[in-house]
Amino acid sequence: MAWSESVDTLLANKDGLAAFRTFLKSEFSEENVEFWLACEDFKKTKSSTKIASKAQKIYSDFIEVDAPKEINIDFQTKTHISQNISEPTLSCFDDAQRLIYSLMAKDSFPRFLRSEAYKELVKKQQSGNQKRWLPFL
Predict the structure, then answer these.
(1) Nearest CA among 124, 121, 110, 123 for reference residue 27
(2) CB-based contacts of 31: which residues, under 8 Å, 6+ apart?
(3) Is 30 helix (H, G, I), strand (E, B) or coil?
(4) Which of 79, 87, 100, 96 is nearest to 55 (CA)?
(5) SS3 per-residue string spanning 78-129
(6) How many Cα atoms sit within 13 Å of 108 on the Cβ side?
(7) How far is residue 112's CA from residue 105's CA, in Å, rounded to a whole number?
(8) What is the per-residue pLDDT across 8-49, written as a single tens digit (0 to 9) for each?
């Protein structure tokens, strides 16, 4: 499976992303990929009014203390975002996004590749490929 090569490949693949999200849910850490995706969407925002509202939504969902999907970032990064959220820029979450990406790449992704869910997907794909080439199976 191509998306086993890197986190970038996984996150760019619809099926890979869905499988990874399911895995993170089972580990109670899906907020990481949700935050990463929200940041990716946020960086594509063109309208300045939407920048402010989307930034506030990301902040209230993931950053502020006791947020419903609070991500685990260091105090300094959280403070920096909190101080600048009143005048957000498209890069205001970059440091936090890098931290979360690193956490997923170094921790969650390797565990995902070792998980039973991933092994099942590989098995399913391999048997699907065999059937495509050998229609009589």
Answers:
(1) 110
(2) 62, 69, 70, 71
(3) coil
(4) 87
(5) HHHHHHHCCCCCCCCCHHHHHHHHHHHHHHHHHHHHHCHHHHHHHHHHHHHH
(6) 26
(7) 10
(8) 998 998 888 999 999 999 999 999 999 999 999 999 999 989
